[in-house]
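Try it yourself: sequence plus flavin-adenine dinucleotide, in.
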Amino acid sequence: MNEKKVLVIGAGPAGMMAAGAAAESGADVVLIEKNARVGRKLAITGKGRCNITNFCDNETFIAHLTANPRFMYSAINRFSCYDTVAFFEERGLKTKVERGNRVFPESDKALDVVDALYDYVTGLGVKIILKEAKGLVIEDCAVKGIRFDDEIMYADAVIIACGGMSYRATGSTGDGYTFAKAAGHTITPLLPSLVPLNASDDDIAALQGLSLKNIRLTVTDNAAEKEVYSEKGEMLFTHFGISGPLVLSASAHMRNMSPDRYTAVIDMKPALDDETLDKRLLRDLSEFANKDLINSLGKLLPKKLIPVVIQRSGIDPHTKCNVMTVQQRHLLIEQIKRFTMHIHSFRPINEAIVTHGGVDVKDVDPRTMQSKLVKGLYFAGEVLDLDAYTGGFNLQIAYSTGRLAGESAAH
Ligand SMILES: Cc1cc2nc3c(=O)[nH]c(=O)nc-3n(C[C@H](O)[C@H](O)[C@H](O)COP(=O)(O)OP(=O)(O)OC[C@H]3O[C@@H](n4cnc5c(N)ncnc54)[C@H](O)[C@@H]3O)c2cc1C
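Structure, out:
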């Protein structure tokens, strides 16, 4: 057993995994958390159910990273998605696999995941101190400890696992970037990822609260004249624009955001081509022959959407169905198949699921997570310039980098 003293800043999934791994490797570990309890963000993940990881192999995991995938090879080889599932199962947390290989606790309670990690670290004798770290103590390019308001705590190694800067109320306020920058590391530009989008179109606000299932969302980068995203799934209209699973995923492909650079197009009927949809429309119109158009589309579209689609098509909503022309039908089909929104901006970073950007991975050794600039200083989790799609991949980044940082810091 070595007597190495390791301090870990931040008791999120990365910090708890790092602290446990360091303790298992024989180090004397102190975990420092500024909140009154550990894992506050973890507790709200997956809408309170926690999508723990994705049940996939390492190549699939790497393919789902949206920043610096190559940097993650060593960490995921050391602690894979399958290792994560085994880790929790061995600690009594039963898991289940859902659509898209998403792993959840069988209990559907994110708090059970927090408890499992808490029991893991405390069971290994890790001391948890609820206190805010204020800075690092660095001498001769080596870390010597952590500074608090009222004291300095000395150590052989320090692991920064302070998370990103979204959902600040959970404690992720970007302190890790400040500490890393003060120690000479480059911080790449911080942007929201997996974030809702503000739309410029005035008529979108009327759709607030409407959620659409089984639609296709396609996003185009107008400046690059390139389609950057196209998937089928669910989305939601909000008072500011659009949100929901498809929109969050699309946002990870919109890094060059500026007002109206991107357009998002909804195909409300992806299973029907224009011709088939026209036949379907014709059927509905003949069924409601003597009614106004505005009262005849209820079988085809959600109620809230009907006036907006008709308004956009430029047809008088009180046109009788039996006088609708071929041309007018085509105008309607255009809106149903290619409902276009102009994206103004991301919602603020505080509303993002993850922060894109962070400690530049060029300053970090991927085999150990140790800083290349400051000896004994390690990084784990979202503080690094690493992020991924939804599906459990972001938490897997936290456990894999945490595991590797903890073991490396202890040795
Ligand atoms: C609403 C929401 C839902 C999500 N759902 C999922 C999901 O289902 N699956 C998934 O894979 N990912 C999900 N994510 C992303 C995931 O939660 C994060 O990627 C992950 O929590 C990052 O882990 P971390 O340990 O690096 O940082 P964090 O979880 O942010 O933890 C950092 C910790 O450091 C502490 N800290 C910060 N500064 C200091 C300081 N100066 N002193 C002491 N302590 C400090 C903070 O209080 C915090 O407890 C979700 C995110 C959000 C916001």
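One thing you can check immediately is this: The pocket of flavin-adenine dinucleotide is lined by residues 9-15, 32-35, 40-42, 44-46, 50-51, 132-133, 161-163, 166-167, 171-172, 175, 353-354, 381-382, 392-395, 398 (CB under 6 Å).
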